[in-house]
Amino acid sequence: MTSLLTKLTVGIYGCTANLLTPAVKYHLRKRRARGKEHPQRHRERLGYTSEPRPAGKLIWIHGASVGESLSILPLIEELNKQHSDLHFLITTGTLTSAQLMAQRLPKNARHQFIPVDLPAAVERFITHWKPDLGLIVESELWPQLIFRTSQHKVPLLLVNGRMSGKSLKSWLRVPFFIRDLLGCFRLVLAQSRQDARHFEQLGAPRVKDNGNLKFAALPLCTCHEALEELHKHIGERPIWFASSTHKPEEVFLARIQKELQKKLPGLLCIIAPRHPDRGEEVLAEIRAEGLTASSRSKDEEITDKTDIYLADTLGELGLFYELSPLVVIGGSLLRKGGQNLLEPARQNCAVICGPEMQNFQEICDAMVSAGAVIKLQSVDELENCLFSLLSNPEKCEALASTAKDYMADKGREIHQIAHAVLEELHLS
Q1: DSSP characters for 280-307?
Q2: How far is it, in rounded angstroms, from Cα 210 to Cα 159?
Q3: Strands of 179-265, DSSP E
Q4: What domains can be seen in the chain, in order of their start residue?
Q5: Among all residues, which ones are annotated catalytic?
Q6: Number of Cβ atoms within 10 Å of the Cβ of 79
Q7: 13-41 pLDDT, tens per residue?
């Protein structure tokens, strides 16, 4: 039961949101002018749609962006296998995720942009679609969206629930509010035991640790023509790839590449910055180290003299995971947090990560214990670790094979997650 203090807080939040509605609409118009909102479908952000609700059972699944939306595809596939008469409404908030969903969703699923967290927008959305069940993926805890959905008696599940230690501390400042917010969910399916403990600390009434959807996610897209073209230019040169790097990791990696080339002539390093719009800056930093670099965004080819190839484009990580047998995880070397290590593991890469993997701590620790990834104790170990694997292809292949097998085994947890979802629809 929602406490009086929470009701007052939600009421103030809703009144403030109503007063700010003109400012929100102005902000959305500016985003549309900058190409960050869909030019034809922008009204979906205010809860309007021209799409009819399909007849029958409708499961609404919301994932914020690309990572979350990709993770739900195998869940939809599994649910379809067990009950082919279901319909799915997928909501996301970004153009890139909408484009991916348009390419990958099955015929019984449709995509809409999630409405902004304004009372009227959310009300229009829920009233029109009337979902039979709502699944919120990971950590999208928008108050109006959740409380109003609950008020409409739509059962809610938090799927692949994620609650970092930092978020836990923040929510504990308003314990009454997060307890009531999580109370709107019939069930929280946490992606790890640590996440489950955090949700329990915050007062979620039912929590299960059913595994991580991202283990069952499909491999990232690869353009085979582009892959063949890159193979043609690279030839037999040994390769290593640093994915989703942050400043100042690129300079650090460039210096390691310089040292490795002394032992491994012809070695090529590929670097993909987490934010490709930093391409010019990164290119200048690499060249300042005396290395020859080519930029993919500028259509510069890899030549025999190219030391580092800068993959400063969007949506091509899968291409470079397919190309390189060895991957270093960015954001884990000179920054705290780390990036996704599951994607390269799924694509048969040997994976090295630095000591700073807080964003994927439990997953990383489990993979290290299984021998599926190498985690460095210090960034000073990176050069020797790379040399050891690059000079011993059999060792590199064995690490990659262990990672891929681990991913396949963990991916079977999707059956448990689908079963828990269908139980809430009384279909299991």
Answers
A1: HHHHHHHHHTT--EEETTTTPPP-TT-S
A2: 9
A3: 185-190, 207-209, 239-245
A4: 4-218 (3.40.50.11720), 224-411 (3.40.50.2000)
A5: 68
A6: 24
A7: 999 999 999 999 999 999 999 999 999 99
